[in-house]
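INPUT
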Amino acid sequence: MNIVRGAAPVRAAPLQAAPITKRVRATALVPWLYLAPTLLLLGVFTYWPLLQTAYLSLIDWNLNPSQPAEFVGLENYGRVTGSTLFQAALLNTLIYIGASIPLKVLLPIPVAVFLWSMGQRGHLYRAILFMPTLISFVVVGIAFLWILNPIFGYAKVIFAELGLRFPNLLADPDAAIWVIIGISTWKVLGFNVLIYLAGLASINKEFIEAMRMDGAGDVTIFRRLIWPLLTPTLTFVAISTIIFTMQQVFTPIDLMTEGGPSNSTTNLFYMIYQYSFVTFDVGGGAAGTMILFGFLMIMAFVQFRVLDRRAQYQQ
Amino acid sequence: MQLSRPMCIAGHIVLLAICLSILFPMAIVLTTAFKPMNEIYAGGLLPQAPTLENFKRLFEKTAFGWYIWNSSGTTFLRVIGQLVIGVLAAYAFARFRFPYRDALFGLVLGAMMIPQVLTMLPIYIMMAQLGWFDTWWALIVPNLATPIAVFLLRQHMMSFPNELIDAAQMDGAGHWTTLWRVIVPNLGPALAALTIIIFIDSWNEYFWPLLVTESAQSRTIQIGLREFLQEDMNDYGALMAGIIVASLPAIAVFLFFQRRVMDTFVSSGLKG
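OUTPUT
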């Protein structure tokens, strides 16, 4: 791209040339005025805090303004990675992400393809699928706390009618994490279906008719046409799922288990929250944040490499 | 596209199962909220003697009026503020050429991929230094820049017919007038989609308000519900009533803009 010094509307030519340099300078400022609020806000509230977290990870401080912060170098990192909480959180984070790939990234694909094939007639399905996106994780968490309540919950009543005893899932260290995973899947499935539908909308249906004429079946059409054309969308969904799954499960964890029983549902996000705002260990929280940052970078990069090699078709 | 018959039937079965698993918990919440105390723990889906008791108790036991006021006020201001700031930035990226434009656009988009957890500690300390705890400032200001809005609006502005803009500028309209009088009125579907996204995001926000609101009068609905859950663990009737009150506005806003949004999403909006 040819970068022009000074600002000019992209296509509309100015009616008269501006010979005076002062005027040129003034117009050069115009786009920056339009951009100023966004750039300022992102600088102050996104990019600067990222750098500052790196600094905070090197100090020992308890959020108390009258307490001076003490520089301790990399000590926080050693303390955090050595704790059993961190090891549990890291393992659970891998489980959360590992379970999210089939449930939140792959499962929506056949659902979306089916809805797409139905065209306008799938409207009701789409509306129902989208409903969980509208309500908050707090609402979902409280609703399922009630349904799964081991003493008077609905699930217990249904189990009793079938002659079964309903286990207290949230108190079981092996089962609790799957309750959280199930709830977050329940909540985001419809949204991901919608994103895949957006990707599918750009596929020309005439290709499919042509393949049909040549005698291709559903499976062939999916493998040879839909899947390759959907790969860019898949990359997007996969990377954003990896980055945001931890944020999505934070609310159910906080409401339903608080990381327990015996750290079986905590993850890196919740661990950082506990370090920073429960025990007020700023250095530990910041060190955990930097570790999480590195972890996300690696995961996103790996995903990108794996999926990008397959994204060979461009529409 | 026409699927073969067995595929079609299998698809309907799977989708019906998914839809039922979505609707059933919702039905339980809805009916529980209208049940009197003695029925709540007895099982059975429909209330025998429907009552508004639970809603009454909700407002008596908690500062729910304050929660609604705080959630509505901050959400309203955030939607307006985020849209205006997004429109301005999108206009700069769509219609000007200036140094570092593409790099800056990359930085704006990159911010979309930075989860809040990575930046919250320094912002929290910043709020403490500014004395913004328990105020709307803390809930609104750190969230005002919206990369997805810049991205979506820029796309729509770039596909805007140049003839109209040229005509406006021929008539002597400057950038400011062109933007607000000519371009913005034609961005309806994109603005509707963004209104829903920002509204839901703000209304349902949990993590940030949890950190910066402490007094009962400054809490938002989501944090108020959490507080109520922890104080009154077993009053599930009132909790279900609270859930319904907390969910209605987002559903209403969605239904109001729905048609335009589904179209925007599916036809032009989010392409990976």
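end of record. Chain B is about 70% helix and 0% strand.
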